[in-house]
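Deliverable D4.2, example record:
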Amino acid sequence: MPVAVDSSNERENTDKAAAISAAIEHMWVRFLPQTRARVQILESAALALERGTLTPDECEAAAGAAHKLAGTLGTFNLARGTVVARELEQLYGSGKLPSPEIAAQLASELREMIEGRSGGQGNRI
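Output generated by the structure prediction step:
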């Protein structure tokens, strides 16, 4: 015997999911400038590593930016971004700095994910 489907519950669940999705998208747009700025810190640190001029303050800033990215990117369906940011956080925070190539590659991967997620919203830094 077929089970009756309560279409009002399905509609309500769909409406809730749409509202959650819209709220997450609103938060993404709101925090996109900060997210981009944090990636810029990581890109600058990678460049300083390449030049051999990375200061302790820049290293600390890179670890902090990576920490904040690791804590938020998964919320926006960028789980890989969380993994990459966590890796950068550990490298910059451990005292054993990444190679300039690895630092640049990971920062670039984050940039691509974020720009891909944003779909070109706002001005890119």
